[in-house]
Amino acid sequence: MKESYSLSDIAEDNSDVELRRNTLGVWKVVFLVVSAASPLSAMLGAVPPAVSLGNGAGVPGAYVIAGLILLVFSVGYAAMSRHVVRAGAFYAYITAGFGRPFGVAGALLALASYSVLQIALYGLFGFFCTVVLSPVLHSGLPWYGYSLLCLAAVQVIGVRGIDLNSRLLGLLMILEMGILLLLSVAIMRHGGGPQGLSLAPFSPGVVLSGHPGIAIMFALASFIGFEATAIYGKECDRPDVAVPRATYISVLLIQIFFAFVTWAIVCAYGTANVVSVANEHPGEFWFIQSSKHLGAAMTTTMSFLLISSIFASLLSFHNTLVRYIHSLSIEGILPAWLKRTHPKFGSPHMASYLQTFSVLVPLLLFILAGSDVFGVVFSWDVAFGTIGIVALQALTSFSIMLYFLRTRKDTRVWHTFVAPLLGGIGLASVGWILARNLDVFSGSNSAIVQSFPLMIAAIFVIGVVIGIVLRKTKPEVYRRFGQ
After folding, report:
1. Whole-angstrom distance, CA of residue 25 vs CA of residue 278
2. Which distant-in-sequence residues (6+ apart) come within 8 Å of 349 by Cβ?
3. Sorting pLDDT into bands at 50, 70 and 90, what band is 336?
4. In this model, does residue 15 exceed pLDDT 60?
5. Residue 370: CB partners within 8 Å, gap ≥ 6?
6. Separation in Å, CA 5 to CA 11, 91, 194, 337
7. Where are the alpha helices (DSSP H) in 294-344?
8. Residue 199 burial (C-beta neighbours within 10 Å; 0-12, 13-18, 19+)
9. What is the CA radius of gyration of the chain?
10. Which residues are paired to 196 by β-bridges?
11. What is the helix (H) or strand (E) element at residue 111, kind and residue range?
């Protein structure tokens, strides 16, 4: 049967397509988005290369700088969330500022970037399961066996509804952040390492030493996911209040937490020794100090929490992508059957099945190709996804500025002009550093990896073309898009 995308079709059976409202409060949104940042896996994965390839002992300062960039971005983002409440925040905001063709391009790039990040995390989940779980279970299951089991679990839990998801993610977030805080406090109680406890890692001379741009690049990648706060606006009680508060709390929480625990680990090794340890023992960088200060049992616990941290991030990204798909279906861009919600749980279950399938297919292709799980599936995909999200953040920031300049709905200069402009410039600068240092970020100098910026630009151009075609072929859908 031929799909109809008329406005009447989009609007029919609203009771079956609307997301369940008044389900989320501020802290439930915080749990959902901070879990996407995956604090434990971000610290274990990003800090060693940030130390060895970036600014060494100045990494805590790099996390402060990255957090400040995103706080400035959040000012305009939070202001915009009071005027535009859509489940597809990025593309709705870009549409409001740059117009519908750019909005369609933003939606396409968001879907591609978040999906590729999910594939990366499924690979990482499988990799660490073979390292941590296989010896305990005496299992010979390959990495992709664990990844596929995880994919099924994320799908089942994702359909159960956003309230259950937020509660589970909140618990996992507390556990993974708790063990890092426990380690950090233990390091402080022992007076740090050979040079004691020092604030030198935050001093300008140390922070700006080496390659601070590369360190900030790794730090900013650790924040990916916080921007999803606005996506849950339609499911919030008082979204005009909940979304801005959740955005600021999420960024501040991640920034303070990352800066503190990286400061503690740098002090544990000492500013003079931390780079050599990060070079020689990147995989054991955190576990060496955990064994020393917390003991073998807690170090083993940290290993298991690393797996749960990645799972939490996967579930959070799944929820984000599902809401993009659901929103685009209501817009009329994607097939109408994807907008239906579960009769019991109120979740966009049809969009959830499509999202799972869209990740499963490329994951199977990687498996059939025999791709290296860490060197290709994770490293390449996380590089692609991070560039795409940072580009979207920068474009969104500039779009917010244009929207308020044109509409004058909010005349606060800092909130609607200065902060979006500075945030956009900061994010665009980090995106440029990412593009120039892809070999460092991905661990590969492959021609495919070097072409990622061109691929992202091509996806965006294709989206613009689709938007222009929609204007001519489906004018009603085009007129409704992003509004």
Report:
1. 40
2. 159, 340, 341, 342
3. confident
4. no
5. none
6. 10, 19, 67, 11
7. 296-331
8. exposed
9. 22
10. 193
11. helix 100-137
Q: Which one is predicted more confidently, 25 or 177?
A: 177
Rounded Cα gap, residues 116 and 208, in angstroms? 32
Asked if 230 contacts 247 with a C-beta cutoff of 8 angstroms, the reply is yes
Residue 268 has pLDDT above 70, yes or no: yes
Are 76 and 397 spatial neighbours (Cβ–Cβ below 8 Å)? Answer: yes
- Pair 440, 53: CB distance under 8 Å: yes
What six digits make up the tokens of 222? 């650790």
What domains, with CATH codes, occur in the chain?
A: 7-480 (1.20.1740.10)
3-state SS assignment for residue 334: coil
Task: For residue range 383-433, list pLDDT tens digits in order.
Answer: 999 999 999 999 999 999 999 999 999 899 999 999 999 999 999 999 999
Q: What's the sign of the alpha-carbon dihedral 26, 29, 33, 38?
A: positive
Output the six-digit token pair for 286. 């955190």
- Distance in angstroms between the alpha carbons of the first and the last residue of the chain: 28
Distance CA 288, CA 319 (A): 35
Residue 81 one-letter amino acid: S
Q: Say if residues 29 and 226 touch (Cβ distance below 8 Å).
A: no
Question: Measured over all CA atoms, what is the biggest interatomic distance in the chain, rounded to whole angstroms?
Answer: 72
Q: What is the DSSP string of 379-447?
A: HHHHHHHHHHHHHHHHHHHHHHHHHHHHH-S---HIIIIIHHHHHHHHHHHHHHHHHHTHHHHHS---H
The C-alpha angle with vertex 319 and arms to 314 and 323, in degrees rounded to 5, equals 145
